[in-house]
From TrEMBL:
InterPro entries: Put_HupE_UreJ. It comes from Croceibacter atlanticus (strain ATCC BAA-628 / JCM 21780 / CIP 108009 / IAM 15332 / KCTC 12090 / HTCC2559). This is HupE / UreJ protein. It comes from the Bacteria. The keyword Transmembrane applies. The chain crosses the membrane at residues 20-36, 43-65, 71-89, 101-122, 134-159, 171-188. Keywords: Membrane, Transmembrane, Transmembrane helix.
């Protein structure tokens, strides 16, 4: 198995690992307010998140800038809760009519935070001087897994809203509230003070 494929698989499985569910929870709340019809907005958000986490992976992996892992482990659940609370705030609003600039900037910033979380794992598995190829493979694996998670969330959303007749508002409130309930213990477990 070549190095690119190995790190691609490591990136893919790192996100889809049942023990690393914080990333999946973030994507649930990121796209809970959207449908397949709004795929361009979803793609923009996922791409901005990927840009953010790839940038922080790069600067951390090459020792340009690092952040204490305890701070990142605290901030990751904060980003998830903030995204979920935002969903609760806009649950009654039409997403097609809104401007998304603030959400785009927040998603890019949240990607930076999550990327520093990935960088700790990446630095453990990528040893030696050759980091570019492993980094490309790892980032590509993460991106593919993110797309799979987003498609799954959009599919579940479609089933709940179209086939089970759950209102869009109720879907957003219930899915975001469940995520908050799962993430709050993680936040308290990683509390900095």
């Amino acid at each position: 198995m070549n190095q690119l494929q190995l790190f691609f698989e490591l990136g893919l499985t790192h996100v889809l690992d049942i023990n690393a569910y914080d990333h999946v929870l973030f994507f649930i709340v990121l796209v809970a307010v959207y449908s397949f019809k709004e795929w361009q907005k979803v793609l923009a958000l996922v791409t901005l998140f990927t840009i953010g986490h790839t940038l922080s992976l790069i600067v951390s992996s090459f020792g340009i800038f690092t952040v204490d892992s305890s701070i990142i482990e605290f901030l990751i659940p904060v980003t998830i809760i903030l995204a979920a609370v935002y969903n609760l705030k806009i649950a009654d609003k039409n997403t097609t009519a809104r401007k998304h600039y603030g959400q785009y900037i927040a998603t890019l910033f949240f990607g930076l935070i999550h990327g520093f979380g990935f960088s700790t794992y990446f630095k453990m598995i990528a040893t030696g001087d050759q980091k570019v190829l492993p980094l490309v493979g790892f980032a590509a694996g993460i991106e593919v897994s993110q797309i799979l998670v987003v498609l799954a969330v959009l599919g579940i959303s479609f089933v709940c809203q179209s086939l089970l007749s759950i209102s869009r508002r109720d879907w957003i409130i219930v899915s975001s509230s469940i995520v908050i309930g799962i993430v709050l213990p993680i936040l308290f477990e990683n509390w900095l003070w």
